[in-house]
Write a structure and sequence with these properties.
- The complex is a heterodimer.
- The model of chain A has no long low-confidence stretch (mean pLDDT 93).
- The radius of gyration of chain A is 13 Å and the shape is globular.
- Chain A starts with a strand and ends with a strand.
- In chain A, strands 2, 4, 5, 9, 10 and 11 form a 6-stranded mixed β-sheet that branches. Chain A has a 5-stranded antiparallel β-sheet with strand order 1-3-8-7-6, with no helix packed on it.
- Chain A contains no helices and 11 strands.
- In chain A, 33% of the residues are buried.
- Chain A is an all-beta fold.
- Chain B is mainly β.
- In chain B, strand 4 and strand 5 form a beta hairpin.
- The radius of gyration of chain B is 13 Å and the shape is globular.
- Classes of the chains: A mainly beta, B mainly beta.
Chain lengths: 109, 116
């Protein structure tokens, strides 16, 4: 079993839709949770960073962490074609980041 | 957000040559830098972790004599692929993190290496 599980997609939605991206994990020591966006042939770009459980909102993006269920989510409201990319969840305890496999998102105009 | 640069952005070389990739944190001091490798449509694979002024820690299966890492300052780390072969062709991405347990990692734009 992988430490972090993420559905690879692809996930195709129409413009304006609400997108829900999710990851589950098995290591209860993880304390820091991140979502990165990666466009093709580019490095990952940090979108959201959350410490421990709770919600965090930044513009159209909302990150949720439920440590009791070992489940994290990223919601994208009013999705745009420019949101089309691969979204990677990442988490760590005290040392190195563990990444999910990434979910490919396509927002259709 | 913090900015991490990489140079070159892409490189083509002949088999048997060595290639050096630079990673710089432009607006913060990075006590720890990471080097990743990414194959098409796959997630990032951590190769090694380096702390400024000390030897890099390599992940299992990564040849330290092939992938030389130097973290000479708080803003610069280099990865040298020695005697490159076609199977070393990949997308190499560095990441930098400032000090403190809550500091997160910022990634460079990546370097695409093609070994002929």
């Amino acid at each position: 079993q992988k430490e972090v599980e993420q559905d690879p997609g692809p996930l195709s939605v129409p413009e304006g839709a609400i997108v829900s991206l999710n990851c589950t994990y098995s290591n209860s020591a993880f304390q820091y949770f991140m979502w990165y966006r990666q466009y093709s042939r580019k490095g990952p770009e940090l979108l959201m960073y959350t410490y421990s459980s709770g919600n965090k909102e930044d513009g159209r993006f909302t990150a949720q962490v439920d440590k009791s269920s070992k489940y994290i989510s990223l919601f994208i409201r009013d999705s745009q074609p420019s949101d089309s990319a691969t979204y990677l969840c990442a988490m760590r305890g005290s040392y190195k980041l563990i990444f999910g496999s990434g979910t490919r998102l396509l927002v259709r105009p | 957000g913090a900015v991490v640069s990489q140079h070159p952005s892409w490189v083509i070389c002949k088999s048997g040559t060595s290639v050096k990739i630079e990673c710089r944190s432009l607006d913060f001091q990075a006590t720890t830098m990471f080097w990743y490798r990414q194959f098409p449509k796959q997630s990032l694979m951590l190769m090694a972790t380096s702390n400024e002024g000390s030897k890099a820690t390599y992940e299992q299966g990564v040849e330290k004599d092939k992938f030389l890492i130097n973290h000479a300052s708080l803003t610069l780390s280099t990865l040298t692929v020695t005697s490159a072969h076609p199977e070393d062709s990949s997308f190499y991405i560095c990441s930098a993190r400032a000090s403190g347990p809550q500091e997160t990692q910022y990634f460079g734009p990546g370097t695409r290496l093609l070994v002929l």
